[in-house]
Amino acid sequence: MTISCHMPNFASAQEKDLSAPKSYDRYDYSIADSYNLNGDCMNQILPGGKFNPQFTAFLDLIAEYAQQVDGPILFRPFHENTGSWFWWGKAFCDAETYKSVFRYTVEYLRDEKGVHNLLYVYGPGSEAATLAEYGERYPGDAFVDMVASIPMTTRRPATRTICL
Fold first, then answer.
1. Most exposed among 66, 94, 125, 132, judged by the fewest C-beta atoms under 10 Å?
2. How far is it, in rounded angstroms, from Cα 149 to Cα 126?
3. What is the CATH number of the domain that holds 21?
């Protein structure tokens, strides 16, 4: 079971019903495409940020789903972060912000919501040219269970590898 999460751009999520009992029903994410690069979303979703309520509501949806699954789920949030085609990509936040958001995601789901069947996958894009570039946004061993998309070199063909 996997969740490769193309999270919506929370800057574009519309308020729907702020009194809805389930936090994720308070927002309309349908127009908030992950390829929408507007709104400085990545820099505004941590606690205190303008889009944190929309972000945590979306994480509540993931938590509710994960708690219904009997078994592990590979969860790959904010993948291909070394590219810039998603709002969480390299052009839209620095490495420290990326790591902070990844860590917050893990801590919120694990510690706040009590979800313990997610295995967190760090999967930057294959365009990282070196191991140093590949690891620049690595959130740390305490927040990552698996690593994917080993960088390619200019001398070898591109490969996709999942390492355990």
1. 132
2. 6
3. 3.20.20.80
